[in-house]
Amino acid sequence: MDDGAVDWLCFSYLTAERAVVYRAIVDVFAAAKAEFALHLRASEVQSELVVRGTSLDLSDVESALQQLESWGNLQSYQDNADVASLTDYYRKRLLYQLSASGEAAHASTLTFTERLQQQAKLDARALDRIADGAGQLERLAIHLRDADEKDPVVTLTTLRSISQDADELTSRAQSFFRWLHEQTESDRGDLEAFLVYKQQLIDYLQQFVSELILRTDEIAGRLRRIQDWEFERLAEIAATEEVGEPRAGEEQQHERRISDMAIRWRQRLAGLQGWFMQREGRPPQSDQLRAAARAAIPRLLQLASQMNERQSGRSDRVADLRALAINFLQARDEAQSHRLFRAAFALSPSRHLRIDPKTIDSLDQNRVRPDTRWIDAEPIEMTPQLREKGRAPSAAANRRVTDRSAERAELQRRLGRETGRDEASRETLVALGRCRLSEIGGLDQEAFKMLLGLLELAVPKGDVSRVTATSRDGRLRIGLEMDSGQELDRADSKINIARIDTEDGTLVLQDAWMEVTRV
Asked: CB-based contacts of 250: which residues, under 8 Å, 6+ apart?
């Protein structure tokens, strides 16, 4: 459809002088349509507005309805259902309903509001859905390649789903990093509150980055196995299914609509490939998202360091002005306030730079005007070094550089020991293979902590029999498979109990099949 064929006046009700009334009336018609009401009379609209807290005269309601009709939001029909005489027939009695453009304008405002209120977060579940959709596209391409079989309904559904998930991932990522920028670099961010959950946010970013690395390779591999002509064919199949059958006499327009829709689907598929694959020398969007998430972590740590420096007493302009205000309030008399003011804002001559209690008493007794010449004032004693080098000698000799090589070597040894313990714990858990939790027996302290962290990530939510999760460092994957019939929310279910002995005690939990593998 051309821009010239679109009636944009249907959005006028959002910014008109009585926009509140117009929006309330459109909401009434949208609610009536949701309840499958065909039309509304002006009196019915007035009654519904009263219920919603807006009281208007019937004449005002009719005037607003006529204005909405002139903008194209409503359509009116003559109400002849209760006509009993010729006079009633010629009397103006109208029924109103939302027009197609009015319904579209209302839906767009709802989408606009929902997008603004959408929570800014990185949704790793969208990556799972995109991976599933890429696998379905690969299967459809294999059917086209081997037997030229096509399933238009599944093809269109798959393309719509994977496009929606990619759009959601993109919009949420943009919103998240815009919010993160405001929190870390903009004056509008509440930095004090931000510090409270900075560690949770860092863990959240690390978890998303590890999930993004795993899913990106999987999705890119599936998309690479689909040939270009298969993408073209899938786009044509989806376009044909979406446009549907032609109406009589519109065969040429129907072919043009299919062609335009196929171009759109090819563009969407090309964008999907660009998200996860390198195309024409440009890096994939997933790499840019991963780089942005990784860059956010040191920025958060730097912000935390700056806030800690401020809280530990280091000077900054706001703190200095606040301290100066406190000193003004605590001044004994007006003379001390004037002296503090002159010293703070450099309104006195440089004589105040070398000052002691004796000099203060002398200045209080014999005030020296700022415009007094040095030759006419009392002499000031200074050290030869101040005269020669422009600065006074330090109170103590400079500290010698401390050799920290032994401490750094010790830190390196500790890091090596911790890395070795972590690797041994991973090897212990992987060596268990597929087993039940009750068969594990005993674990050392480090292996138990690692297993507990994996179990925390793999806690099943809802009625799910099998759950998989990846460790925060992306090196291990755990799979849990619950026994059939074991449901914690049923009183009559029989639950098998597993016990794992550790140095710190015994862990008691619901038994299940478990397998830990390396990624």
From this structure: none
HSE-CB for 328 with a 13 A CA cutoff: 11
pTM: predicted TM-score of the whole model, two decimal places: 0.44
pLDDT at 189: 46
Cα separation, 169 vs 290, in Å, equals 13
Whole-number mean pLDDT of the chain? 80
Sheet of strand 476-481, all strands in order from the earlier edge strand to the far edge:
435-436, 513-518, 476-481, 466-470
Phi, psi dihedrals of residue 481, rounded to the nearest 5°: -125, 115
Angle between helix axes 405-431 and 445-457 (nearest 10 degrees) is 70
- Give CA angle at 131 (460, 470), nearest 5°: 40
Strands 94-98 and 74-78: antiparallel
Q: 72 or 82, which is more confident?
A: 72
- b/e code 245-256 from CB counts within 10 Å (16+ = b): eeeeeeeeebee
CA angle centred on 72, ends 70 and 73, rounded to 5°: 110
Model pLDDT, residue 24: 92
Chain centroid offset of residue 130 CA = 18
Count of positions (residues) in the chain: 519
The neighbour count for residue 5, using CB atoms within 10 Å, is: 6
Q: Rg for the chain (alpha carbons), in Å?
A: 37
Instruction: Give dist(CA 502, CA 497) in Å, integer.
Output: 16
Contacts 24+ apart (CB under 8 A), 411-419: none
State CA 368 to chain mean position distance.
Answer: 62
Question: Is residue 304 over pLDDT 50?
Answer: yes
DSSP 6-53: S-GGGGGGGTSTTHHHHHHHHHHHHHHHHTT---B-HHHHHHHHHHTT
